[in-house]
From TrEMBL:
Pfam families: Pus10_C. One of its GO terms (molecular function) is primary miRNA binding. Belongs to the pseudouridine synthase Pus10 family. Its EC number is 5.4.99.25. Keywords: Isomerase, tRNA processing. SUPFAM superfamilies: Pseudouridine synthase. Residues 1-148 form the Pus10-like C-terminal domain. One of its GO terms (cellular component) is cytosol. This is tRNA pseudouridine(55) synthase. GO terms for biological process: primary miRNA processing; tRNA pseudouridine synthesis.
Length: 157
């Protein structure tokens, strides 16, 4: 495993692999038990139909522990059961780009549908960025910055 990890790390300067290891089925089960407690960090490029000022989006930064009700998104309804899930946006940080664009950095509960949080999915996610800003919003880019979970266990190198 160490050899494979080194080969991967030597092949690119874009990614790094650490703690590569074989895990047992029971270890995977233990990881899944904690899914609700995991957090993820995202960066999203957001477009709005109406012009925005820096002040219009600055209030997003002050919102903490925002509770969402998310119906199963239309885009995944063919493979997931219809349900309403309560998810939490822990923090938001906005970066104004121009009058129709801003970058939104989010720390969320795992399982939060970010695209739907931005555009609302025809009212299926409440609240959403569009409703919070009182305008139509859509997502142009979405990047996962980190998955915050202590698994697999760190290895001695």
């Amino acid at each position: 495993m160490k050899e494979l990890q080194q080969t991967i790390n030597n092949s690119s300067d874009k990614i790094r692999v650490r703690d590569l290891q074989l895990v047992t089925r029971s270890a995977i089960g233990r990881m899944k038990e904690g899914e609700e407690e995991k957090t993820k960090t995202y960066s999203a490029l957001v477009w709005t139909d109406k012009a925005i000022q820096k002040e219009d989006i600055a209030f997003l930064d002050d919102i903490k522990e925002l509770k969402l009700d998310q119906k199963t998104p239309l885009r995944v309804l063919h493979r997931r059961p219809l349900a309403v899930r309560c998810r939490i946006i822990h923090t938001m940080k906005s970066e104004y780009i121009d009058e129709h664009h801003f970058r939104l950095h989010l720390k969320t509960q795992a399982g939060t549908y970010i695209k739907e949080f931005v555009h609302g999915d025809f009212g299926r996610t409440k609240p959403n960025i569009g409703s919070l800003l009182n305008r139509t919003a859509d997502i142009l880019e979405l990047d996962v910055e980190s998955v915050d979970v202590d698994w697999p266990p760190a290895l001695d190198n």
